[in-house]
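re: ur question from earlier - yeah i can do the single chain one, its not a big deal. heres the input i used so u can compare w yours
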Amino acid sequence: MQKKVRNFMEEYHMVEREETILAAVSGGADSLCLLMLLHALCGEMGYALRVVHVEHGIRGEASLHDARFVEEICAKYKIPCRIYHCQTLDYAREKKLSVEEAARKLRYQLFREAAEEFGADKIAVAHNQNDCAETMLFHLARGSGLQGLCGILPVRGRIIRPLLCLAREEIEAYLEQSGQEFCTDETNMQLMYTRNKIRHQILPLLTQVNDNAVFHMNQAANVVAEAVELVEGLRLLAAEKYVCASAECVCVSQKLLEEPPLIAREVLRSVLAQTAGSSKDIQRIHVQQLYDLFARQNGKVAELPYKMRAQRTYEGIMLWKGRAQKLRNAAAPGAESRAAAESISDSVQLVSLTLPIGGSLAVPSYGYEISTRLLEKIPQNEEIPKKIYTKWFDYDKIKGTTRLKTRQEQDYLIINTEGSRKKIKKYFIDEKIPVYLRDQILLLADDTHVLWVIGYRISEDVKVTEHTKRILEIRVNGGRECE
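and the output i got, formated as tokens:
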């Protein structure tokens, strides 16, 4: 048993020599096994061991008995121990949580506190293979994405789970062979708790189908975890391209649908969790609601958990939480969100900044770093950039000073070689740029007109041609969607 656990800890690099592990010990079978094995291995693996116990104040004298039991075990092994007493029911009422969730939050909060007190590098908890299988079933039943099907990971931050290589039957057999008593929490038998129903009713039925059901589910969890790592990398790349976040809302581009559906849904799941501030209770049905909104008419709204709302816009979806924005007239076809526009525009000040030639300029409110260089001729073996945020201009056709600005009523672009003009207001409407973004888009202008709607097109009259003598290159770095 010791060798199995040691190999597992080494496989997942759970601890280094001279580090300190804080073991969370409730007094139950799993945590007693964890304590005994970590104590047995600390000498050969070279780490120090400390213990924390949280008494939740739920079970009266039985709960206090467990705390004393843990203290006695730690005294026997001469392991420093920290006991916490808390009132979980009061905390649950105050935070409007279930008793299960309140107890979990308090536990991990106090684990972190004890870790700081002891200077612990890792916090070891006693989840085993059965816990992993139960968690997979719990998430599957509630509507999970790939992350939920990973079950419980062996390492997450500084939380380590050395017993995930063991089934509950192995743990109980180990304690029986060692002659070690342990505490029994009677609430673990109460079927009013969801996890207890899975543990005592559902999982036993699955083991009747196959004796190795728990082991096979853990194998599947490992495979899913590897897939999640791959998908996460692709999700991050897609989010960089298609998600634009501000303090008020998150905007997701319609172009996200060009990605494989799995990646698109994972992006939407992460957007929901980010906006909500929690991934708890974000289920597959909510991700699908957001995904389906892309196919609905402009202005349509979806209600989501955590008081989130999502609205279909010209370019995709806008998502916000609570009362940060109150959308009105959303039901009218093609209607814009005046309230949203006012909400966001109020946070954006009018910009007017002179752009240096052959230098750089920071625009902190946009996260931009804009650099320029003047080229006396077209560089050999270089083509005119086709990137959205890098542009070449015919420098000799620019009139006066180049500056960055936000839109004004008289602003216009030259849209063709005949010199036809189009007002920026009309350009935004034609391009279906939503109202709430129009006052945020930066424009590059000279003394006469707009040269570049940054992130969109440049004016026709300043494009580089075969007659161009000098080129002004402008590159925008940073921000939300720049290359």
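Confidence is low (pLDDT under 50) at residues 323-349. not sure if urs matches, ping me
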